[in-house]
Write a structure and sequence with these properties.
The protein is α+β, with helices and mostly antiparallel strands. The chain has 10 helices and 17 strands. β12 and β13 form a beta hairpin.
Length: 426
């Protein structure tokens, strides 16, 4: 589970904390009998959903981009992912800090870097007083993870060889190197790494193609498992009244020669090219309708509306996150979706029948109908505002005095009570 994510000096953001805590004090009355989840987790209560609203240009999308950048910076060369706030040069480095739960144990990981290198990296447990390891300006503290086989001196050597570049600056994270290459060293390192990189999925653009989504949901590339994943998506699609009688899927593999690779191939069904197999992968997805005479008409799925295609992909991503207990982050979740469909997609993460593994959903949207629907709680909606001095900031409804879950959030938001709205005049 995701507890929080802090961003300092990234694009429009100077200092922002994305808080997933259940901020209502005690649990709601009779919550165990309710069909909707007020929180996920038991001893540690986190919201299952966090919706971000704000005016165009307020920085909503930058929060999702910060997640994506953080994930890349800790895996690859961090110096290639330095995107500071250009309007307020208050800081000379970017800092990301994330808190994740492995069962009931909180792991805190932080990294500070700029275009020259990483100046600080640390992993902690419970709070920052419980140190696992820490590196500050290349000064390493490895005492709590050292063993007879891997002494502090040997860990220091691993750090220098695998994390330091030719300019003698740290550019790769110690956590990524040790958690992937020395998995027997320390279980806490592995647990923290897996919770961060294995259980958080970020889509800074809501445009994931359905064949990719099918493989994500299937967790495999075998035709049998992808077919099962396809059935799961279509089972829910049929419940959402999209006027399709049925959907079918099949996959074919086509060898490709060098001439074809050089010239390029135009085929709307081609999904991707697998260099290791020198194969083109072709997914044929068809939808079936009935014409005015009662005859069955077959469409290529690419001929369906953008909303239908987006809905199918989003459902697949949601089902994948729900089955694996992951955190799903999507920008513009409401893209091309009807208001009632958006409500049902979000409801998947709040419904006990579907969310059995503490999955969480973070999304941005402009469609405000869901704020008037009654299922969103005061801890689950945040509003983004931006000024040049403060950068992008966030306040959840729970941060405002006197707000209760019976309040009409939509009307108050559009009336400007929470800010985060434009004030247009033509």
């Amino acid at each position: 589970m995701l507890a929080y994510f802090c961003i300092q000096n990234f694009k429009s953001i100077l200092n922002l904390k994305l808080d997933f805590s259940f901020a209502e004090g005690k649990a709601p009355n009779h919550y165990k009998e309710s069909e909707l989840l007020p929180f996920v987790g038991d001893k540690v209560r986190q919201v299952p959903v966090l919706a971000l609203y704000g005016a165009n240009g307020s920085g909503k999308s930058n929060i999702l981009r910060a997640f994506n950048t953080f994930m890349r910076a800790i895996v690859f060369d961090a110096t290639e992912y330095y995107h500071p706030n250009k309007l307020n040069p208050l800081y000379d480095s970017t800092t990301f800090e994330i808190g994740v739960y492995k069962e009931n144990t909180l792991y805190i990981y932080t990294i500070t870097y700029n275009k020259d290198g990483i100046s600080h990296e640390g992993l902690y447990k419970k709070n920052k007083n419980h140190l696992i390891f820490e590196i500050t300006n290349k000064e390493c503290i490895f005492d709590n993870i050292s063993t007879k086989e891997y002494t502090s001196d040997r860990l220091d050597e691993i750090y220098r060889v695998e994390c330091i570049n030719a300019e003698k600056q740290q550019c790769r994270t110690f956590l990524s190197r040790v958690a992937r290459n020395y998995i027997g060293l320390n279980q806490e390192l592995v647990d923290a790494w897996q919770q961060i990189t294995g259980y958080i999925e970020v889509y800074p653009r809501n445009n994931a193609p359905l064949p990719y989504v099918l493989e994500q949901l299937a967790g495999d590339t075998s035709a049998e498992k992808i077919s099962l994943a396809f059935d799961k998506i279509t089972h829910i699609l049929k419940k959402l009244d999209i006027n399709i009688n049925k959907l079918t899927w099949d996959r074919k593999y086509q060898p490709i020669d060098e001439v074809a690779k050089m010239s390029g191939i135009r085929d709307e069904n081609i999904t991707f090219y697998r260099p290791s197999q020198n194969m083109l992968v072709k997914d044929n997805i068809r939808s079936y309708h009935t014409d005015v005479n009662g005859n069955e008409v077959i469409f290529n799925f690419n001929e369906e509306s953008e909303g239908t295609q987006t809905l199918a992909s989003v459902l697949g991503l949601c089902l994948s996150a729900l089955e694996k207990g992951r955190v799903l982050c999507i920008d513009e979740l409401d893209k091309s979706l009807h208001s009632l469909l958006l409500i049902q997609v979000v409801r998947l993460f709040k419904d006990k029948r579907y969310n059995r593994k503490n999955a969480q959903l973070l999304f941005t949207a402009h469609n405000t109908d869901i704020l008037d629907e009654g299922s969103m709680r005061i801890s689950e909606v945040g509003f983004i505002n931006k000024t040049e001095k403060t950068g992008s900031t966030i306040k959840r409804i729970s941060d405002f005095d006197g707000k209760r879950n019976v309040t009409n959030f939509r009307k108050q938001y559009l009336d400007g009570l929470f800010s985060g709205v434009p004030f247009p005049y033509i």
